[in-house]
């Protein structure tokens, strides 16, 4: 991280806005900050630290104490830092919480802390975070250091320069963990520990499974004292014995199956013989039924015979029916011919009457023709007059249209003038609105900024409320777990006591009077312990494990409670206003922002509507000119039309002078002409129609007379033919045995019914024949046989099947036993192998986990070992500079001896003194020696961290005082080390009053104190 520009306002010793531009250093990488005591030199470091972390570089400067006493009441305390990190420019702005005078009334109001972080790309600003909490988190993410680590490595304040040097092992660990990213090694430790517990659980489960399998195969008594090899042999012998038993059972099953098959075959044969006896009885009953149906069969035969005879004469009957129908139709035709003749005579009479009426109208017809000829003579004048009349009407319409258009143009001209005045007013409004738009936009931004600060405060309140609720729940859970832990501890102690008593009772059972007690050696045993309750070793171990688990759970939840409390303390909130007040204020801010946004959108919509207002004014002016031209043209055209209308009216009057007044109206003229034409055409058409009707009526009368004669002859012929065929039919009917016509009609059957009756007769005769023959066959077959005892045979069959099923079930049960014991044997061997592998893995992982967690002779964890290596690398670099600054006298070494007790060790530092040849603690160094050692360590730490941790950029170092403790020679050596450091590109800033240091370093930042606040300026020696 390299600072580029630092701006301070009302901060510390700086009253007005003071900007330090570090880019003025140019190629210089080391400078001295000098000035009188209290002028504000350390304040520069405080400002940089506050801008980055929200905290000053010293612990005694926080919050409101940062405000300058020289500042004006209306000036807010704020710090802005622009810095470069990994070739990316950032800008961070912070305002601490402070009291400012109220704008109205007396007293002060508290301004809450604010922070903003931007990424700069040219002139573009990208907002990364807006709240104090978010900016703090983002800055730690970017720089990857917290404020304590920052001032121990990069910005070392007064009195704290040697803090890293003399820090205890645990304190150094916290710094080095972050710098070396050793949390990965902590994860490895945790993963090994988790893996150890997983494997331990797996071994326990596998052992339980092996025990469960053996208990499932053998009695518990048979397993006492058995080894794994014994168990394998027991499984093998058990499987062999079960298989031999199964083979014997299979032989018995086969014999029972053969017996059951023979019994089933006997039942099947008996059932077949019984079926034959049943069929014989059925055939006898069926023959008796068929014999009873013989009379019905004979009756059906007689019906069929009569139906066949009726069928032989049915054609003659049909012929008579057709002739009867023809006779009826001939008589109907004869009647229709008589009616047609009567109708034709009436039609002819009417036609003669209409012919007389036509002759009466003929004089009027002649007069109509004469009048039509007169109208045709006048048609030329009337037609021309009609044309003039149409022209005049068209001209009048055109004249009216021109007058209307002229009026419209005049109205448009008037509207155009009104629009011109409106547009001028709109232009004025646009200019006023633009001014207001800029004001609203600025006001919206200010309100938005205030809302962002307010939302940040609300977020902090709500987050703290959530964490407090979680803390309450954790405290409740802690009390529950604590109670469970006490109960588990009491239970474990109780079972331990019972177990000890039980062991004593077991030992007492072996005592013999006169023999020495194996515990105390006494020969007398006056009060022997008795067994009160049986407690197993497994119960005691389980209770101990439960106690340990509950204790671990209690520790875990206690850590969670402390962590939650720490999280609550890390959330800064203002107690000036409650959450409800903040939310009410936020609602007010939102309402104001909404109003501002609506006003802005309304004005932008107005801008959109009036975007082309100037173009509209130009178009309006052009439209006025065009309307004036059009109005002149319309007036000229109107004058021409008026003259044309007057000329046409004069000509029209002259044409109609010789035309009768009744026909001067062209519509009346053409109407009369059309009426005459229609009357003439109607008379001619009627005359033609009446003549045609007269001729048609005469022809129809002639045809009707002829048709009447033909129909009379046809009716007589049909009547004679019907009489002849009826005589023939009666003779045939009597010859076939029918007494009368109804008897004949009753005997007629349809083809389907006749066929059905004939089929029934055939089926009856065939069935009777079949039953008779089959009955003779069955009598012959069953003549010498008896009915079998089917019930006895079925009972034997059931007994044989029952025996077979019982044998088969026993055999299947035995097969299942063999399968189960075989499966248990296979599972036993498989789990035995898995248990062996798991125990081996558990031993290996357990060893690694114990070593990584510090269960070794040095009590050094894996992460601390890596940190020690990291520290050794730093010391290697630091000793090079330290030897140079001390002329080879001092060398830093890491203390490797194990600390007393369980205290973690391995990061303490000692110094080796060449003068004495002894090692001693770094706290024994003098002030100057300590400064040189701390400087060497800080420079080396920055170099090693930069090289080993690609994500951390340590391009800057600031040192506050310390050089005054050095003699001239040591000072020269320290300056040489710093100059070597700045050659690598690192920026080094030193606060010092030592004149030799100012002379040795060419560039200085001079801080000048006045009664109005301090100012700064860079100076460079030539």
What this model shows, in words?
Helices cover about 70% and strands about 10% of the residues. The protein is α+β, with helices and mostly antiparallel strands. Among the domains are: about 1-175, Rossmann fold (3-Layer(aba) Sandwich), CATH 3.40.50.300; about 860-1020, Rossmann fold, CATH 3.40.50. A hairpin with a 2-residue loop joins strand 8 and strand 9. Helix 7 packs across helix 15 and helix 8 crosses helix 10. The longest helix is centred in the middle third of the chain and has 215 residues, at about 295-510. The radius of gyration is 66 Å and the shape is flat. The mean pLDDT is about 80. Keywords: Coiled coil. This is Nuclease SbcCD subunit C.
Set down the secondary structure blueprint:
Layout: E1 2-9, E2 18-21, E3 30-35, H1 41-53, E4 78-85, E5 88-95, E6 98-101, E7 108-111, E8 114-121, E9 124-129, H2 132-143, H3 147-153, E10 155-156, H4 163-166, H5 169-180, H6 183-217, H7 228-292, H8 294-508, H9 537-569, H10 579-609, H11 613-655, H12 661-664, H13 666-735, H14 741-747, H15 751-781, H16 790-852, H17 862-885, E11 890-894, E12 909-913, E13 918-921, H18 927-948, E14 956-960, H19 968-983, E15 987-991, H20 995-1000, E16 1003-1008, E17 1015-1020
Parallel strand pairs: 3-15, 3-16, 10-14, 14-15
Antiparallel strand pairs: 1-2, 1-4, 4-5, 5-8, 6-7, 8-9, 11-12, 12-13, 16-17
Helix pairs in contact: 5-17, 6-16, 7-15, 7-16, 8-9, 8-10, 8-11, 8-13, 8-15, 17-18, 18-19
């Amino acid at each position: 991280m390299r600072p580029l520009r630092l701006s301070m306002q009302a901060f510390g010793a700086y009253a007005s806005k003071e900007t330090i531009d570090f880019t003025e250093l140019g190629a210089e990488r080391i400078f001295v900050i000098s000035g009188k005591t209290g002028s504000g030199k350390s304040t520069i470091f405080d400002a940089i630290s506050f801008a980055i972390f929200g905290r000053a570089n010293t612990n005694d400067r926080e919050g409101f104490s940062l405000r300058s006493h020289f500042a004006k009441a209306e000036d807010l305390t704020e710090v802005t830092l622009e810095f470069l990190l990994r070739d990316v420019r950032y800008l961070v702005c912070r305002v601490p919480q402070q009291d400012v005078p109220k704008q109205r009334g007396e007293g002060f109001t508290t301004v809450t802390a604010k922070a903003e972080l931007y990424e700069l790309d040219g002139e573009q600003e990208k907002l990364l975070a807006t709240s104090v909490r978010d900016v703090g988190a983002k800055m730690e993410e970017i720089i990857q250091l917290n404020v304590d680590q920052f001032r121990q490595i990069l910005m070392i304040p007064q009195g704290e320069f040697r803090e890293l040097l003399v820090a205890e092992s645990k304190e150094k660990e916290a710094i080095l963990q972050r710098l070396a990213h050793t949390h990965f090694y902590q994860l490895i430790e945790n993963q090994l520990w988790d893996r150890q517990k997983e494997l331990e659980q797996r071994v326990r489960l596998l052992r339980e499974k092996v025990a469960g399998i053996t208990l499932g195969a053998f009695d518990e008594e048979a397993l006492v004292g058995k080894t794994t090899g014994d168990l394998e042999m027991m499984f093998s012998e058990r499987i062999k014995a079960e298989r031999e038993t199964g083979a014997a059972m299979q032989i018995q099953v086969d014999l029972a199956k053969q017996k059951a098959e023979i019994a089933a075959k006997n039942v099947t044969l008996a059932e077949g013989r019984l079926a034959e006896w049943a069929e014989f009885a059925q055939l006898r009953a069926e023959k008796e039924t068929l014999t009873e149906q013989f009379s019905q069969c004979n009756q059906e035969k007689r019906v069929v015979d009569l139906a066949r005879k009726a069928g032989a004469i049915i054609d003659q009957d049909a012929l008579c029916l057709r002739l009867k129908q023809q006779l009826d139709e001939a008589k109907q035709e004869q009647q229709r011919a008589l009616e047609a003749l009567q109708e034709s005579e009436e039609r002819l009479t009417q036609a003669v009457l209409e012919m007389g009426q036509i002759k009466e109208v003929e004089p009027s017809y002649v007069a109509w023709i004469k009048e039509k000829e007169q109208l045709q003579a006048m048609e030329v004048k009337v037609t021309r007059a009609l044309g003039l009349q149409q022209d005049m009407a068209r001209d009048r319409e055109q004249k009216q249209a021109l007058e209307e258009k002229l009026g419209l143009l005049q109205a448009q001209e008037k509207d155009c003038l009104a629009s011109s005045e409106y547009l001028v007013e709109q232009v004025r409004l646009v200019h006023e609105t633009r001014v207001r738009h800029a004001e609203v936009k600025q006001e919206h931004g200010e309100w938005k900024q205030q809302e962002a600060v307010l939302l940040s405060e609300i977020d902090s309140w709500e987050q703290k409320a959530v964490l407090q609720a979680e803390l309450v729940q954790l405290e409740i859970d802690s009390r529950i777990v604590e109670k469970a832990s006490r109960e588990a501890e009491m239970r474990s102690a109780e079972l331990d006591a019972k177990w000890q008593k039980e062991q004593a009772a077991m030992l007492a059972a072996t005592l013999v009077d006169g023999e020495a007690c194996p515990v105390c050696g006494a020969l007398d045993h006056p009060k022997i312990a008795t067994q009160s309750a049986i407690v197993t070793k497994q119960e005691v171990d389980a209770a101990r494990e439960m106690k340990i688990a509950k204790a671990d759970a209690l520790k875990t939840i206690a850590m969670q409670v402390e962590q939650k409390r720490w999280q609550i303390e890390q959330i800064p909130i203002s107690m000036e206003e409650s959450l409800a007040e903040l939310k009410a204020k936020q609602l007010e801010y939102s309402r104001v922002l909404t109003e501002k946004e609506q006003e802005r959108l309304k004005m932008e919509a107005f801008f959109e509507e009036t975007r082309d207002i100037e173009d509209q004014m130009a178009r309006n002016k052009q439209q006025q000119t065009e309307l004036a031209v059009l109005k002149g043209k319309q007036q000229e055209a109107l004058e021409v039309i008026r003259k044309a209308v007057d000329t046409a009216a004069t000509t029209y009057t002259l044409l109609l002078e010789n035309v009768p007044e009744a026909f001067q109206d062209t519509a009346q003229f053409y109407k009369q002409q059309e009426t005459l034409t229609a009357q003439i055409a109607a008379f001619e058409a009627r005359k033609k129609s009446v003549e045609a009707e007269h001729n048609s009526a005469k022809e129809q009368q002639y045809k009707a007379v002829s048709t009447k004669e033909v129909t009379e002859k046809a009716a007589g012929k049909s009547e004679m033919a019907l009489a002849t065929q009826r005589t023939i039919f009666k003779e045939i009917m009597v010859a076939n045995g029918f007494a009368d016509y109804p008897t004949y009609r009753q005997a007629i059957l349809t083809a389907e019914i006749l066929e059905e009756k004939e089929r029934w007769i055939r089926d009856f005769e065939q069935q009777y024949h079949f039953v008779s023959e089959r009955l003779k066959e069955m009598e012959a077959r069953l003549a010498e046989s008896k009915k079998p005892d089917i019930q006895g045979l079925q009972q034997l069959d059931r007994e044989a099947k029952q025996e077979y099923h019982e044998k088969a079930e026993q055999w299947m049960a035995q097969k299942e036993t063999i399968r189960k014991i075989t499966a248990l044997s296979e599972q036993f061997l498989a789990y035995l192998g898995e248990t062996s592998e798991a125990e081996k893995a558990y031993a290996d992982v357990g060893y690694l986990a114990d070593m990584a967690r510090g269960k070794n002779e040095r009590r050094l964890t894996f992460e601390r070992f890596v940190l020690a290596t990291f520290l050794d690398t730093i010391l290697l670099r630091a000793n090079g500079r330290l030897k140079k600054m001390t002329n080879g006298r001092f060398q830093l070494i890491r203390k490797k001896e194990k600390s007393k007790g369980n205290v973690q060790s391995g990061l303490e530092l000692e110094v080796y003194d060449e003068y004495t040849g002894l090692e001693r603690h770094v706290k024994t160094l003098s002030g100057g020696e300590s400064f040189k050692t701390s400087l060497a360590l800080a420079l080396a730490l920055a170099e090693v961290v930069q090289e080993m941790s690609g994500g951390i950029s340590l391009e800057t170092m600031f040192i506050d005082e310390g050089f005054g403790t050095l003699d001239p020679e040591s000072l020269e050596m320290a300056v040489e080390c710093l100059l070597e450091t700045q050659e690598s590109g690192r920026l080094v800033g030193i606060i010092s009053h030592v004149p030799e240091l100012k002379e040795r370093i060419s560039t200085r930042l001079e801080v000048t104190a006045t009664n109005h606040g301090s100012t700064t300026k860079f100076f460079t020696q030539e």
